[in-house]
Write a structure and sequence with these properties.
19 strands; single chain; six-stranded antiparallel barrel
Length: about 210
Amino acid sequence: MIGIANYRLRYRPLRAGVAISSAELGTFGTLGCLATGDGQDRWGVTAGHVITRAGALRMDVFQPDLRAVGALVSEPQTALKFAAGIDIVAFRIARNIVTSPTILELGAWQGVTEPATGMVVVKSGFATGVTRAHIGQIDATGFDVLPDAAMPTGYAAFAGGDSGAAWMTADAKLVGIHVSQSPQTGVGRAVGLKVALLRLGLRLVV
């Protein structure tokens, strides 16, 4: 996965939408949003499989920059928070890194909301950049993401490196975290952000 080069730069303040990788995997996913447990700490929320596939409890998380390895963006060997039963994880962002509650190329979010069938959403992710889709079927933990039918054949609304990216509504509310897509059906899958934050024991930074 090559992805979009601009998403592999070392943005400061740190914002969502940028590429991240872990010491375990070395492949890139996307930082979805920023959360907090006590109003002072900062946690990065992304898809669980972006950070670990071996169930690691601690992990170094990196943000790419011009160096080969990239910059450590988490606390060293940060303890991970897992959202029970869903593919979501949070890692503690290093205390010396200033953050901004914004998404690369989309701007500031205005809170979190529940999904609704037919809702138009956008995301900014490492693999395909800023793309548009709409919400399909909804269940207890998340929803299907369907490419915009008005787009031409071959339009990629999401791909592998977009895992972890947050889907945002037209009024800048975050609704879910992208976790997968099916090459056969072209349908994506997202976990509802309200569900994810509740199970992580965190709240969105605004």
